[in-house]
Write a structure and sequence with these properties.
The complex is a heterotrimer. By secondary structure, chain A is mostly helical. Chain A is 72% helix and 3% strand. Chain A is built from 17 helices and three strands. Chain A has a three-stranded antiparallel beta sheet with strand order 2-1-3. The two termini of chain A are 47 Å apart. Chain B is α/β, with parallel strands linked by helices. Chain B contains twelve helices and 13 strands. In chain B, helix 11 links the parallel strand 11 (272-273) and strand 12 (292-296). In chain C, 75% of the residues lie in helices and 0% in strands. Chain C has helices at 27-32, 34-57, 73-105, 108-123, 126-137, 141-165, 169-178, 182-215, 225-233, 237-267. The chains are: A mainly alpha, B alpha/beta, C mainly alpha. Chains A and C meet through helix 1, helix 10, helix 11, helix 15 and helix 16 of A and helix 4, helix 5, helix 8, helix 9 and helix 10 of C.
Chain lengths: 390, 320, 268
């Protein structure tokens, strides 16, 4: 007798709460004004919509209590149906307008409110407990992006903000990716080498790890601020530096700080990866007559690769988030959008800047994890010689 | 040929080797035995410079090993350890091929060599692409031996290679090793703490204790009177019995022995063949309760082997 | 005459007295705290004497607009301290309760839910969390504290759950065998043994929060972020340094002190 899934119950509760208790959207006559909350009741003029929602809630309820129901189709159908809910809701919201006065729809816009987000989160949680949960959740998110993406929601605030700065958006997105990925890439080689040095030299180990840890502990903004000074000085007084385009603000300081930040995960993981290679394997490599470099390249590095990859995963995921701060010092990226939105009190611009960052971080995390698992399988565990047999 | 002269090694205040002289002629297998901590492994590792020496001289084939770069020296010496140490990310073929590749052999030659070695050590060809984690302990160690022999080194060093497997597998590995050695006649230095293993494999048994060589000689030598009490107690009072395992009935010279004239004793057992060990012959005598047993020689004769024949053989061997 | 083989502390003569384990006044113990002490010292010197130091050095410094910080540094220090400590403490309390709850109910699905949510939460950058708190609480210190509170829950809850799980079963068995109730076990076994791991989580949360609080200045909070960000906006490097250095000291002090505390916990 299957127990009612906890995730399904939690998810459903959140979703219903969001749907019923909180406003789903906020109608703003223009960008800055506070706006009129729209909740489910307001939206559902027309019985057909009401009926649809009721059906959905009932279906979800059926899903939650499925152990009492013979029909296992419910188990499979309902989470799939829920995939479309956030997207369709966005569609509905986009067409809403409070009864009474007419508004200039060129300027007016509808923001997504806490109710919507709760509903979205609830649906995702419910799906996470269902079979093929990962696929379901991905599809829900994709559909929710696709609906405004193809222009079906012209009055949604997020969409309006996006259209406003479309070219800039893509430019900053590219800049964000470039910054995060290149700084991680540049930190890769020094990180691995430093990890190797830590592995071989006991005495240097503490110093290296301590120094690298320092960059992690220091507040990013602090480092950014401090590095601007020498860079400004250099760019003003050394013509070569200025010619290369390195200034005190912009790409250069952000790049340097991000690279330093990546050093810890990569170095620490490289070190632990090299350490965990079995002594018997290294011994036989030495006895065979491999030079130190050959041992490093053919034995240590391949065997430590899964652990190193885990470090890269951490470094990249962390970088994607940290790159937001580049926006503060003129380095561009999604941070530029976020801080612009903050200064203009335009919440939707802030959300527009945040969502890509979160999605990128999640995508990198999942993709790198897949690579990591594949690599761990290929390298495998060293043979346990305490076996019996021929 | 390996020659060690007055080899001395100390770890700080701890003396591991206190002036060791050892000579291993070409094609012979010298087995170092002794209690834990006697320095046998350390001595082994000085030969391929895994352990450096503080004083003394080590020569392989007439050349001082100190004159070579360590990596180049090691590529000419095969090395087998208890933990095997196969590279987990290489399959069997690539593991065996490591040194030949370092020496830049052509790939076709390497492939031939790998196949030949696998056949010689009793590994099916299907194993070539397997990964170490798919192998049992015994199979892995066979791969280890192949790997050590891959580049056809003149010298082979083995550090308790069969210690980590169960007794049945160990016996099979010992027999496999003996066959390989019979075919290739490498100069081998073998470390073990198991007296029986030493008796079986050695052309020369070298007994060590506390960093010094106490005694050395053919296995048969120790069947007679032993003066040193430590050697005596280490080898054990059952040494002659253990020694019997090394020789077979054939070694007695069956053609010279008289024929078995009585009826074959009814016991339900098959008559012993000429390739059984002398220990089995003695066991058979005890089982039947007789002083003599019939053995079938290669020519089909049933030969009479008596208890006295065994005893005489042992005393002959001990005089060598 | 001793009847047992054990040496009782009371009936031995002084020359064989059993030495007590634990922290005595040893110089080695105090010396470890030198480094964090230096950070704290440097911090205090900076926040109280920065302005005077600048006026002393002013002949050698490049000209800058006479922009004075409206709030003196030690006020900023107090604001930053307040924001971080309050939000992190509340987060620690919440996480301990939540983590203990998850652990005690032994519900695998609940644990998976909490751990997944916290994992996903950690991929959201702290700057984003701060920015997204604005629609909820507007601008100001409270927003920053809410964001930091939410963000700090994630590492601590995860470490609490994991820490309590990795207690070896044999220890629990001993506890049950001695007749402890589940709650007693929780108090006397789970919490002490999980403490080092939990403290590590707290350290992570604290350091992250000290760093994130600097970004709070973008949403109207106080603290060291104010001079840093203003300084960036008006290209005044001195203002940037004024804020960057003390918060650096603060973070390093917190990190080092908690590391020392954790390793002492482990040694007990």
């Amino acid at each position: 007798m299957r127990k009612t899934s906890l995730k399904a119950r939690v998810g459903l509760t959140l979703a219903v709460l969001g749907l019923v208790l909180f406003p789903l959207g906020t109608f703003r006559p223009n960008r800055v004004v506070r706006g009129i909350p729209l909740n489910a009741a307001t939206l559902l003029e027309g019985k057909s919509l009401l009926a649809a929602v009721v059906v959905l809630v009932i279906a979800a309820g059926l899903f939650v209590f499925r152990d009492r129901i013979r029909n296992s189709m419910v188990l499979y159908v309902v989470p799939w149906l829920l995939v479309f809910v956030p997207g369709l809701l966005m569609l509905l919201l986009s067409q809403a307008s409070p009864a009474g006065e007419s508004f200039d729809m060129e300027v007016a816009r509808i923001s997504l409110s806490s109710g919507f987000w709760l509903l979205f989160a609830g649906i995702l949680i419910l799906q996470s407990g269902a079979p093929r949960g990962g696929i379901l959740m991905t599809l829900t998110v994709l559909f929710a992006i696709a609906v405004p993406g193809v222009g079906l929601t012209p009055h949604l605030a997020l969409y309006k903000e996006f259209i406003n700065i479309e070219v800039t958006f893509y430019a900053e997105l590219r800049r964000h990716l470039t910054l995060s990925l290149t700084s991680a890439a540049v930190a890769l080689l020094p990180g691995i080498l430093l990890g190797y040095v830590c592995h071989r030299h006991q005495r240097l180990r503490e110093w290296i790890l301590g120094a690298v840890n320092l960059f992690q502990v220091a507040p990013t903004l602090s480092l950014l601020g401090l590095i601007m000074i020498p860079l400004t000085y250099l760019s003003r007084n050394v013509p070569l530096v200025a010619d290369l385009g390195i200034r005190g603000v912009g790409f250069a300081p952000a790049f340097i700080v991000l690279t330093l930040y990546c050093l810890l995960p990569i170095t620490a993981n490289a070190f632990s990866g090299f350490d965990q290679v079995e002594a018997a394997v290294v011994d036989s490599a030495v006895a065979i007559g491999m030079t130190k470099r050959q041992i490093f390249r053919q034995v240590l590095l391949p065997l430590a690769l899964p652990v190193i990859f885990s470090g890269i995963r951490t470094a990249v995921t962390q970088n994607v988030g940290n790159t937001i701060l580049a926006g503060l010092i003129g380095g561009g990226g999604m941070g530029a959008l976020i801080f612009l939105g903050l200064s203009q009190s335009a919440t939707d611009l802030v959300i527009l800047g945040t969502i890509p960052v979160v999605l990128m971080a999640l995508i990198f995390d999942v993709v790198f994890k897949l690579f990591e698992d594949r690599m761990t399988q290929r390298v495998g565990v060293a043979h346990d010689s305490l076996d019996t047999g021929i | 040929m390996i020659r060690l002269t007055q080899v001395y090694k100390a770890y700080g205040a701890q003396e591991a080797l206190k002036g060791v002289d050892l000579e291993v002629p070409e094609g012979q297998c010298a087995v170092l035995i002794g209690p834990s901590g006697c320095g046998k492994s350390t001595l082994l590792k000085t030969i391929n410079r895994m352990v450096g020496i503080n004083a003394g001289r080590i020569e392989v084939n007439g050349k001082n090993i100190a004159d070579y770069a360590p990596e180049l020296l090691r590529r000419q010496i095969g090395y087998c350890i208890q933990g095997v140490g196969l590279f987990p990310h290489f399959n069997v073929h690539d593991n065996i091929a490591v040194v030949p590749r370092l020496l830049k052999w052509p790939e076709s030659h390497i492939e031939e060599r790998v196949k030949a070695l696998m056949e010689m050590s009793g590994l099916p060809d299907a194993y070539r692409l397997k990964k170490p984690r798919e192998l049992s302990g015994g199979e892995a160690q066979r791969v280890g031996v192949c790997r050590a022999l891959a580049a056809d080194p003149p010298v082979l060093l083995m550090d308790e290679p069969f210690g980590a497997v169960d007794p049945l597998t160990r016996e099979r590995l010992q027999l496999a090793f003996m066959e390989i050695q019979r075919a290739l006649r490498k100069t081998v230095v073998f470390v073990t703490h198991d007296v029986e293993e030493a008796i079986l494999l050695a052309d020369r048994v070298v007994l060590m204790n506390q960093g010094l060589i106490l005694d050395a000689g053919a296995p048969g030598k120790f069947a007679g009177d032993i003066e040193d009490p430590f050697v005596k107690s280490f080898l054990g009072s059952e040494y002659p019995l253990k020694l019997l395992k090394r020789f077979s009935a054939r070694d007695l010279g069956l053609e010279k022995l008289p024929e078995w004239l009585e009826a074959i004793p009814e016991s339900g057992n098959i008559v012993l063949q000429s390739d059984v060990s002398l220990k089995e012959v003695l066991s058979e005598m005890m089982r039947l309760g007789l002083h003599a047993v019939p053995i079938e020689s290669e020519s089909g004769r049933f030969v009479r082997v008596e208890y006295d024949d065994l005893a005489n053989y042992l005393s002959e061997v001990s005089k060598l | 005459m001793k009847t047992s083989g054990f040496i009782e502390a009371s009936d031995t003569d002084p020359s064989h007295s059993v030495s007590f384990r634990g922290k005595g006044i040893s110089t080695k113990g105090i010396r470890k705290w030198l480094v964090p002490g230096l950070y704290a010292f440097g911090f205090l010197i900076w926040i109280f004497f920065f302005d005077e130091g600048i006026s002393v050095l002013s002949p050698w410094l490049p000209k800058r607009a006479a922009l004075q910080m409206r709030t003196p540094l030690h006020m900023l220090a107090w604001q930053h301290f307040f924001i971080v400590v309050v939000s992190t403490s509340l987060a620690v309390v919440t996480s301990l309760l939540l983590g203990s709850l998850v652990h005690l109910t032994q519900n695998a699905e609940l644990k998976s839910l909490v751990l997944s949510v916290s994992a996903i939460g950690e991929t959201v950058p702290s700057a984003a969390v701060i920015a997204l708190s604005v629609p909820l609480l507007g601008y100001g210190n409270l927003t920053c504290m809410l964001a930091l509170y939410l963000y700090a829950i994630l590492p601590v809850v995860r470490n609490t759950i994991v820490g309590m799980e990795t207690i070896p079963y044999s220890v629990r068995e001993a506890g049950t065998g001695m007749g402890m109730t589940r709650f007693q076990q929780f108090l006397h076994i789970d919490i002490p043994l999980a403490a080092p791991i939990i403290l590590t989580g707290i350290r992570t949360a604290l350091v992250i929060n000290i760093s994130a609080a600097t970004i709070g200045a973008t949403v109207g909070a106080g603290g060291f972020g104010v001079p840093i960000i203003s300084g960036i906006r008006v290209y005044d490097p001195l203002m940037v340094v004024q804020g960057s250095v003390p918060v650096l000291f603060m973070a390093m002090f917190a990190d080092k002190s908690l590391r020392l505390l954790t390793s002492e916990e482990e040694n007990l």
